Amino acid sequence: MAIAAEFHKFPPIEGVRWFNVAVLVGTPLVAVCGLFFVPFNWRTVVFAFAYYLFSMFGITAGYHRLWSHRSYNACFPLQIFLILGGISSVQGSCYWWARGHRSHHRWTDTEKDPYDSSRGLLWTHVGWIIFKSKLRSGPVDSSDLGKDPLVQWTHRHYFPLAAFFGYALPALIPALWNDAWGGICYAACFRLTVAHHCTFAINSIAHYLGSTPYDDVASPRDHFLSALLTMGEGYHNFHHQFPMDYRNAYLWYQYDPTKWFIAACKGLGLASNLRVFPSNEIAKGALTMKLKHLKQVQDSINWAPEIADLPIVTWESFQVESKTRPLLLVSGFIHDVSSFLDQHPGGVAYLTKNSGKDMTASFFGGVYRHSNAAHNLMSMMRVGVLAGGGCPPNQSVPPSQVLFVATRHQDKTKSV
After folding, report:
1. Given this model, what pLDDT does residue 416 score?
2. What does it do (predicted)?
3. 360 Cβ partners below 8 Å, 6+ apart?
4. Helix, strand, coil proportions of the chain in percent (round to 5)?
5. Could you tell me which residue, 401 or 52, shows the higher pLDDT?
């Protein structure tokens, strides 16, 4: 039922991209066969992991943060390393990948987003890759990519390069220690399968799983699991708010090996101009979301009546009413303490015998200096304002409401 619901979110399908299906089905099949029939060789396993890092950094530090977002500058040797790493992941050319990703950022969560999250997890993970539809990526400026000779050369020769760096090279190297089948099954196919689905998780679960600490208008979310799967790309809420930042993880303790890799490259003189969003503006986004949460908590609490909503009561009326119910005057406000008689620490008699009297001095230390909690509770018992009465400075607002989250709305009728 859940899978059927996911398919229901798909756009009308016009065909199947059979080449992509062959890669995404055939590659894991070979990997699974290897798990059953090809024994592990520790050198092949170590090489496969190292080549996996090569592929993933090619995507995260190369295709994504360097070419899609221009978040730092890389020297030419580093560019070659990263673009070949990206090609070895067999996810399309850098030119195609970066243009699509820029479109995703410009048109997030709309029909012009190539991996629109409203289409469901299955569509954003692999559906958009293997099915043809009428959906088209929204327009973006990719003129810099069109002028980049390395990006364009690898785009023109993508398929032979992908065949060599994605399959042939990782399969051939383990043959040097007589483990050709291990190279094919583990270094080539198993590595690719993991790299594919970890990268696809950026488009799928990173838009569904986690929190929105910087903005909740769009779907991107932050989660450690997403970051763990994607070499640090899982702090997606941060990334969509501050896409030009070379970091995905802003906080020092968050897991972002791609950030550490880029910083290490800078230390080695291979990268420069690492761009960061102003920390003051990042703090604004984080504060906004915290205030939003606090506003929800605030709205769920019962507060003292607004002063403007309280009736104005004369001294004479106050005296008459205090004969029938216990009313106390504190700071210019008339309080009905009927519901508190049995709970008052000083006893029922103290409240009833002082009904109709001004107890401001007693409340503020003449008899007992009451706590903030007592002030807050007393404000809930306000039933009127004494005509001509005065409230001492800063005593009209209960302590709990000194800090209060207010909502302001922009006037969209005015033009600048």
Report:
1. 44
2. Stearoyl-CoA desaturase that utilizes O(2) and electrons from reduced cytochrome b5 to introduce the first double bond into saturated fatty acyl-CoA substrates.
3. 329, 330, 331, 392
4. 55, 10, 35
5. 52
Mean pLDDT of the chain: 92
DSSP-derived pairing of the beta strands 312-313 and 382-386: parallel
Measured between alpha carbons, how far is residue 278 from residues 114, 242, 247, 285, 391 in Å?
Answer: 29, 9, 12, 11, 45
Pairwise CA distance, residues 151 & 215, whole Å:
33
Q: Is the dihedral of CA 180, 184, 186, 188 positive or negative?
A: positive
CA 101 – CA 93 distance, rounded (Å): 12
Q: Which domains does the chain have, with CATH numbers?
A: 2-290 (no CATH), 307-401 (3.10.120.10)
Residue 376 burial class via C-beta count within 10 angstroms: exposed 0-12, middle 13-18, buried 19 and up: middle
Mean pLDDT of 253-262: 96
Q: Provide the pLDDT for residue 268.
A: 97
* Exposed / middle / buried, residue 278 (Cβ in 10 Å: 0-12, 13-18, 19+): exposed
What is the rounded CA–CA span in Å between residue 200 and residue 125? 5
Indicate if the pLDDT at residue 6 is higher than 90. no
Residue 391 has pLDDT above 80, yes or no: no
Q: Convert the pLDDT of each residue in 86-134 to its tens digit.
A: 999 999 999 999 999 999 999 999 999 988 898 989 999 999 999 998 8
Q: How far apart are CA 14 and CA 288, in angstroms?
A: 43
pTM score of the predicted model: 0.85
Percentage of the chain exceeding pLDDT 90: 77
- CA–CA distances in Å: residue 181 to residues 27, 33, 88, 187, 416: 14, 11, 19, 9, 68
Q: How far is C-alpha 313 from the geometric centre of its chain's CA atoms? A: 52
